[in-house]
Amino acid sequence: MQYDRTDARILEIVQKNNRLTSEVIGEMAGLSATACQRRLKRLRSDGIIEADVSIVSPKAVGRPLQMLVLVSLERERTDIIDRFKKAIKSSAEVVNGFYVTGDADFALYVTARTMDDYEQFTRRFFYENPNIKGFKTMVIVDRVKVGFAIPIEAADD
């Protein structure tokens, strides 16, 4: 996966606003619209751009409770880890899931409509799973910064 300085500029632009037209992005990056489209297509096919998404307000869609949950497994076996990763991917409540090092095995970002809904989720997702050693919930009071933008280093040409 290689990119040049122009690709880096395009990546900076689309991370801030991916709804801009190829004409506008191209103008900002010093390219024609066609050249910009070609580069965007390559950046997507090479997996440098993983997805084009919108960040939705949890409160606006009726899911005002947000939690960070640290999860520890009973034992670290690949089959157990793989099953838990699959459970994370199939759970609508889990917005983001990370396999991590440190005191926990996984860190999850979870949303819920109410605390009762979160309790039902914990019963179903954690307590009914015999491979879960424990979990610790931290309720998010304020989303101070939200986004997915990655700092882009200008590549050597």
Automatic annotation (TrEMBL):
Residues 3-64 form the HTH asnC-type domain. Keywords: DNA-binding, Transcription, Transcription regulation. The keyword Nucleus does not apply. InterPro entries: ArsR-like_HTH, AsnC-type_HTH_dom, Dimeric_a/b-barrel, Tscrpt_reg_AsnC-like, Tscrpt_reg_AsnC/Lrp_C, WH-like_DNA-bd_sf, WH_DNA-bd_sf. The keyword Cytoplasm does not apply. GO terms for cellular component: cytosol. It holds the Pfam family AsnC_trans_reg. GO terms for biological process: regulation of DNA-templated transcription; response to amino acid. GO terms for molecular function: sequence-specific DNA binding. This is ArsR family transcriptional regulator.
